[in-house]
């Protein structure tokens, strides 16, 4: 099996921000409003006359991503409505250069990412509601598609990757993937090529040039690479509410605890986590979105030693936490992720079980434990070891703290 270094480097990025931004942001009813809202195209595309993000929209976005612990950002350079945030160089006039903005927003995005030390990735739609050739002359459309993607590959320097979406719309068509991916490789030989399989085929392998499988709004599972010619990564994408693009009346938000548990679900199987925001038309974020990223970042800062470099240890955890708790490893250091730890406190104050977790997580390690501490405060972890078998009791949080998932750092003899 071929293992490529750029794919392993992608896995080390760990956490990313997904950004859905376009004309739909000016309407505030989600990224599919043209289709699901049955809007007149003339009315929808008239938003080009007002679409003009503030000058520092990209810098603000990068700052929020970094605050959330994200090391890469995937931006919708073109979504299904066919509007491009980049200069299409004459392929059509449906781009930010011909909108009120009058400038190349992808250029601003890339510049801000590089200045902030964040890796830029480009989302690009495969299906297209604007181009007549998508329905009427598919081969002609594919030529247009490749020319569009070529602009992204050659005009913005080295990028982290291209994230495609929409092949699921015409599953029986020949998308001429060899030509598309071959063109990308000619300009960006070490760019991740990702093609989203949507809600219907999470985790499915695809074309040989694809570098990662996707889990859209679904928990990752182990990748079955049996018989596969090369190693591939995996990535889960998730949204705070129920829309990817800005929706001003979407109040069905996930809790921060759910997001933290999602991050940990990804780490359990070595998957990256791509968490979405939908900026408003001026490029700024809904205050709740920014606050969620910033608060998630506080948790990431506490646990960061365990979140980027360690990989799944392949060691089962039995006992009270066996459904959720798991081990990662980096060299001779193991990290046990402990879920559902209770909190000590008066029964009239603390909701739920106030007692320590009496049962232990039980697992085997290939050496003698020389230290065991909690990442969050450095305090000693209670464990017992008999030969290779370790029993660790997570106990309970002291009143005033609840991390949702707590991580124990266990070092064994080298």
Biggest sheet overview: 8 strands, parallel
The figure for the number of domains is 2
Strand order of the largest sheet: 5-4-3-2-1-8-7-6
CATH architecture descriptor of the largest domain: Alpha-Beta Barrel
One letter per element, helices H and strands E, the order comes to: HEHHHEHEHHEHEEEHEHEEEEEEEEEEE
Fourth-level CATH superfamily of the largest domain: Glycosidases
- Please count the beta strands (DSSP E, at least 2 residues each): 19
Overall shape: globular
The fraction of residues assigned to DSSP E strands is 15-25%
Q: What is the C-level CATH assignment of the largest domain? A: Alpha Beta
Radius of gyration: 23 Å
Spans of 5+ residues with little confidence (pLDDT < 50)? none
Mean pLDDT: 94
Q: How far is the first residue's CA from the last residue's CA?
A: 28 Å
- Could you estimate the helical fraction of the residues in percent? 25-40%
Query: Which secondary-structure class do the elements indicate?
Result: alpha/beta
Number of helices: 10
What's the CATH topology name of the largest domain? TIM Barrel
What does this structure look like?
- There is one protein chain.
- The protein is built from 10 helices and 19 strands.
- The protein is α/β, with parallel strands linked by helices.
- It has 2 domains: 5-307, Glycosidases (TIM Barrel); 311-412, Sandwich (Immunoglobulin-like).
- The chain has an 8-stranded parallel β-sheet.
- The protein is globular and about 70 Å long.
């Amino acid at each position: 099996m071929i293992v490529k270094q750029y794919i392993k480097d992608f896995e080390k990025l760990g956490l990313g921000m997904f950004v859905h931004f376009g004309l739909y942001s000016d309407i505030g009813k989600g990224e599919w409003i043209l289709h699901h809202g049955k809007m007149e195209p003339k009315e929808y595309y008239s938003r080009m006359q007002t679409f003009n993000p503030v000058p520092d929209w990209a810098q603000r976005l990068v700052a929020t991503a970094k605050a959330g612990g994200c090391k890469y950002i995937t931006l919708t350079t073109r979504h299904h409505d066919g509007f491009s945030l980049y200069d299409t160089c004459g392929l059509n006039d449906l781009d930010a250069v011909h909108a009120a903005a009058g400038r190349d927003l992808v250029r601003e995005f890339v510049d801000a990412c590089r200045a902030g030390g964040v890796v830029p990735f480009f989302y690009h739609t495969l299906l297209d509601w604007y181009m007549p050739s998508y329905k009427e002359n598919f081969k002609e459309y594919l030529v247009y598609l490749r020319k569009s993607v070529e602009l992204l590959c050659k005009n913005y320097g080295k990028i982290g990757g291209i994230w495609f979406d929409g092949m699921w719309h015409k599953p029986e068509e020949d998308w001429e993937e060899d030509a598309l991916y071959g063109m990308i490789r000619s300009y960006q030989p070490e760019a991740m090529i990702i093609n989203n399989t949507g809600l219907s085929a999470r985790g499915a392998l695809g074309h040989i040039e694809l570098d990662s499988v996707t889990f859209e709004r679904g928990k990752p599972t182990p990748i079955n690479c049996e018989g596969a010619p090369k190693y591939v990564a995996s990535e889960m994408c998730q949204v705070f509410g129920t829309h990817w693009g800005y929706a001003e009346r979407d109040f069905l938000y996930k809790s921060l605890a759910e997001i933290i548990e999602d991050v940990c679900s990804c780490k359990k199987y070595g998957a990256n986590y791509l968490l979405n925001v939908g900026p408003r038309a001026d490029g700024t974020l809904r205050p709740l979105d920014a606050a969620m990223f910033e608060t998630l970042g506080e948790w990431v800062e506490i646990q960061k030693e365990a979140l980027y470099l360690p990989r799944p240890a392949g060691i089962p955890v039995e006992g009270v936490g066996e459904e959720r708790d798991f081990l990662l490893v980096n060299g001779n250091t193991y990290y046990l992720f402990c879920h559902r730890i209770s909190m000590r406190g008066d029964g009239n104050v603390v909701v739920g079980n106030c007692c320590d977790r009496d049962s232990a997580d039980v697992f085997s390690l290939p050496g003698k434990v020389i230290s065991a501490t909690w990442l969050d405060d450095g305090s000693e972890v209670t464990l017992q070891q008999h030969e290779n078998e370790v029993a660790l009791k997570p106990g309970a949080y002291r009143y005033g703290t609840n991390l949702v998932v707590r991580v124990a750092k266990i070092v064994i003899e080298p």
